[in-house]
Write a structure and sequence with these properties.
Layout: E1 2-3, E2 9-10, H1 15-30, E3 53-56, H2 63-74, E4 78-82, H3 109-115, E5 125-130, H4 138-145, E6 148-152, H5 163-175, E7 180-186, H6 208-216, E8 222-229, H7 241-260, H8 265-268
Parallel strand pairs: 3-8, 4-5, 4-7, 5-6, 7-8
Antiparallel strand pairs: 1-2
Helix pairs in contact: 1-2, 2-3, 5-6, 6-7
The chain binds manganese (II) ion.
Manganese (II) ion binds near residues 83, 85, 200 and 230.
Keywords: Hydrolase, Manganese, Metal-binding
Family: Belongs to the arginase family.
GO molecular function: agmatinase activity; metal ion binding
Length: about 280
């Protein structure tokens, strides 16, 4: 929306343009020098140490332009995705795909990301907290083609699987400690009792205590960026449960990034990126 000096405004809405704006905005921040170790080699395609960008939303579709931006800087990345939903649905299955623009939405963006080659091709990505309704068993098969392993919310209670520690171990085993990893957190991964203000709530989710403990357990991973999305403050309780949960998840993510230190450390820990690129 553009506000003119005479107070009138002009409303323009174009999803394709908006997606490109988000990608360019993210890439512009990613192109800035980080405060620490800007002069040291890092894991990006051009061998530079880049800042970590954390994005807050809003509709989960924004993860697609963010992954496009990261792909320009790092190449394909491994993703840890906390959500109650898969978000790897084919456009025909989710949303009906009435047009090319409408085929990109908050349930299909990972399918597009996989099609565009933005996700690491070594089957290293993982969903955590899944408990979605399905259009059929093929949803899980499609998800596997996109490169994800699925950790369901209820698995935290499965006998012999080790509770919170068991979930952490499965995520660590899947993504490893040497790859560049992007973290995307849909607030609906939490139970609606803890985060009611979101577009597509699903019962049977994790508590804020469980999510925070799991995030804290991921400190050995090389996180190159993150988002927390689908927070809808207008629907929140008077006590702002959802906003509070998102803010504290953000605190945990920033803490593990700080503890890990600048991304230049990845090179001394064995990660090498020898492909050519823009940054
Ligand atoms: Mn979701």
């Amino acid at each position: 929306m553009r506000l003119r000096t005479d107070g009138s405004f002009d409303l323009r809405y174009d999803n394709s343009f908006a997606l490109k704006q988000i990608e360019e905005g993210h890439y512009s921040i990613l192109s800035r020098a980080p405060t620490t170790d800007a002069d040291k080699p890092g894991p990006s395609k051009k061998g530079k140490t880049l800042p970590r960008v954390i994005t807050l939303g809003g509709d989960h579709t924004i993860t697609l332009p963010i992954l496009r931006s990261l792909n320009r800087a790092y190449g394909p990345v491994t993703v840890i995705h906390f959500d109650s939903h898969l978000d790897t649905w084919r456009p025909k299955v989710f949303g009906g795909s009435p047009s090319e623009v409408a085929s990109i939405n908050h349930g299909t963006y990972f399918w597009h990301a996989a099609q565009e080659g933005l996700l690491a091709g070594d089957n290293s990505s993982v969903h955590a907290g899944i408990r979605t309704t399905l259009s059929g068993p093929s949803d899980y098969e499609e998800d596997g083609y996109c490169g994800f392993e699925i950790i369901e919310a209820r698995e935290i209670d499965a006998a012999g699987k080790g509770g919170i520690d068991g979930i952490i171990r499965r995520i660590l085993d899947r993504v490893g400690n040497s790859r560049p990893v992007y973290l995307s957190v849909d607030i609906d991964t939490l139970d609606p009792a803890f985060a009611p203000a979101t577009g597509t709530p699903e019962t049977g989710g994790w508590s804020t205590r469980e999510l925070r403990a799991i995030l804290r357990g991921l400190e050995s991973i090389n996180l190159i960026g993150a988002d927390i999305v689908e927070v809808a403050p207008i629907f929140d309780t008077n006590a702002e449960h959802t906003t509070l949960a998102a803010a504290d998840a953000l605190y945990e993510i920033m803490s593990i990034m700080l503890k890990k230190g600048p991304l230049s450390n990845m090179l001394t820990e064995g990660h090498v990126n020898d492909s050519g690129g823009e940054l």
